[in-house]
Amino acid sequence: EITNPAFHLIAVGITDDIDWRQPAAAVIDAVHAQGGIAVAAHPTRRFWAGWDDDALARLDGVEVAHPARHQDAATDQEFDLFFDRVRRVNPDVAPIGSSDYHATGRPGTCRTYLFARNRTKEGVLEAIRDGRTVAEDAHGRRYGDPDLVQLVAGTGATGHVAEASPLGLLSI
What we know:
Layout: E1 2-4, E2 7-12, H1 24-33, E3 37-40, H2 53-58, E4 61-65, H3 73-89, E5 94-97, E6 111-116, H4 121-129, E7 133-136, E8 142-144, H5 146-153, E9 168-171
Parallel strand pairs: 3-4, 4-5
Antiparallel strand pairs: 1-2, 2-3, 6-7, 6-9, 7-8
């Protein structure tokens, strides 16, 4: 996680450190320069200041299913508002479910289903870049493309997609 006072960002698939003392768009560009993906981490109102439209357009993913959203109704709504805002600028951004939580909470309560062409690092990164994900929160609410949400619902979340799908389903 790249932690800036105005935003938090998850960088996946990078090998070198990235300076956190720059705007979010520049951090995302640095992540992409290493072949990685950039995900807005726990984007509650506290972390909105650093996300201008330029940065939102560059994001690969947004944590929309996260334990913090279950703290109270206001925080729950903040996750939806941020995700809606990003989607207006970046309609194909991947919804991400994560248990990245800096206080209390249990790992695994929120998850991401990936529709990947292969079970490799590259396959995972490609699925997120292409927005082929479904996020699921601790209450079983799913976020993402309605067709992909339906495919996840049809699997019983076992990690297998109907044979008609050319993509495999991975849960992380």
